Amino acid sequence: MSQSLDRALTLVNQLATGPKTLDELSGVIGVHKSTTLRLLRTLESHRFVQRDGVHHYRLGTALFDLANLALEERDVRRASEAALRDLNSRLGHTVHLASYEDGEVIYIDKYESRHQMRMYSRIGRRAPLHCTAVAKILLADLPAAALQKVLAGMEFPRLTANTIIGPTAYLAELERVRANGYAVDNSEHEDFIHCIAAPIRGARGEVLAAVSMSVPKVLLDFDGLLAHLPDLLATAEAASAECGFVSR
């Protein structure tokens, strides 16, 4: 571990016990105050540290954000595992679990297809926002202001003949997702694969993650895939119940 990183992590650990002065923190890591100040300013720029008045420092909001994201991701993966594994076992198709994190949709779990044709997706990979069913589920649940912020930075490259192009068409698609309670990727990301996705909700009704089932078109046409929508929705409902959601 580099010396600077070691010192910065030591500062964060010290601030976990309460606000500290520059003198106190310099004493802990055994360096001049100017060196400590440079480290603190770097940590402050990333919101890991914030100044508390003139002379004190305390932990910043980034640590709490990261902790909440880590706990949510770990909990939804664990709580959803049985339902997603059962869906994969019964139907044999690829099942994904994805979550939304600061403007990105990330695959956080995957159950491989039992058929010969497999997808190249992997845990930790980002899902394109404009053309994947999981992203549509997750973005459809965002507050209007947050959604507009994401849209402002989105690009809409045409990946297939069915790819949605432009924010107007995409917003209309999200309205359909909200109305239907599920999303589709009708060969919008890859022209030989299509996908359906549904939300997994938490105790407050918020969307914690999206579960999807992806199938090569040579195995099932789009109508055949939609015939499995009740299975997917039942899986999402079972996973949501394990996450504390009570349907009304």
Automatic annotation (TrEMBL):
Q: Which UniProt keywords apply?
A: DNA-binding, Transcription, Transcription regulation
Q: Does the keyword ATP-binding apply?
A: no
* SMART domains linked to this entry: HTH_ICLR
Q: Where is the HTH iclR-type domain?
A: 2-61
**Would I find rRNA-binding among this entry's keywords?**
no
Q: Which Gene3D superfamilies match?
A: 3.30.450.40, Winged helix-like DNA-binding domain superfamily/Winged helix DNA-binding domain (1.10.10.10)
Give the protein name, as stated in the record. IclR family transcriptional regulator
What species does this protein belong to? Lentzea sokolovensis
